[in-house]
Design brief:
By secondary structure, the protein is α+β, with helices and mostly antiparallel strands. It contains seven helices and ten strands. β8 and β9 form a beta hairpin.
């Protein structure tokens, strides 16, 4: 192995260790290429190779004109599983749900719900917006529409934890399945504000209708994910 190869690997390993021991946290800006050149006594080409490899491996993101920033470990969602946000993210650390808004509205005020669930426009729904945070950094923003006829009352404090666990353990509902659509979209001003994404940075929108075990729909949800923090995994069968 050439000496230059050893040098860029040394830089990579140094930065990875700093990320793992949380000296560098998510969204922290790394030293510039010039600073790393001086720190390790190497050429800019060697530093550039190390940073490019780290970006390819998912440890950092490089933004032209701004620098290199630490990324959160990629979170893999297994789409066939019907899990709440808290349940599917539990292995990645403590997730905090912050309730931004809660209202009881008529379905007619929520066109997104009416497009996906057949509902009387005069029917009431629970409408709530939550942002999911890890170590002070936003992960996702969700808009939930829940039918009052299926879930007559809600403990608002329960919305700061797993909503599905609350439905099952506290309300005794038996959940069935989700129908999910995933696509990449440009965020509106509100999504940009809460997710703190850069200008022109796309986000992943996962929208789903949730059903009880007896095929009764009870919820429509739209969740916006920061695109470079998530991958979506599913099994496809020919028959």
């Amino acid at each position: 192995m050439k000496q230059n190869d050893l040098l860029y690997i040394k830089i990579e390993n140094h930065i990875i260790e700093k990320i793992k021991d949380r000296t560098y946290k998510e969204n922290d800006k790394l030293p510039t290429e010039s600073e790393l050149c001086e720190q390790f006594g190497v050429s800019r080409m060697t530093v550039h190779k190390a940073l490019s490899n780290l970006a390819d491996k998912g440890y950092i993101k490089r933004i032209p004109g701004s620098g290199s920033f630490v990324k959160l470990t990629n979170i893999e969602r297994q789409l066939p599983l019907m899990q709440s946000f808290s349940e599917e993210h539990s292995k990645y650390g403590e997730i905090e749900s912050k309730l931004i808004q809660y209202s009881v509205l008529k379905a007619s005020f929520c066109p997104a719900l009416c497009r996906h669930i057949e509902v009387d426009p005069e029917e009431f729904i629970h409408y709530f917006v939550r942002i999911r945070v890890c170590d002070g950094q936003p992960l996702a923003l969700s808009y939930n529409y829940v039918l009052v006829k299926v879930v007559p009352s809600l403990n608002v404090h329960a919305l700061e934890k797993s909503f599905y666990a609350y439905l099952e353990k506290d309300l005794g509902l038996v959940l069935g399945y989700n129908e999910t659509i995933v696509r990449v979209v440009q965020p509106d001003k509100e999504v940009k504000k809460y997710l703190e994404v850069h200008e022109n940075e796309p986000v992943v929108l996962s929208s789903h209708v949730s059903y009880l075990a007896d095929d009764i729909p009870f919820e429509y949800t739209e969740t916006y994910y920061i695109s470079d923090k998530y991958s979506f995994k599913y099994n496809a069968y020919r028959h």
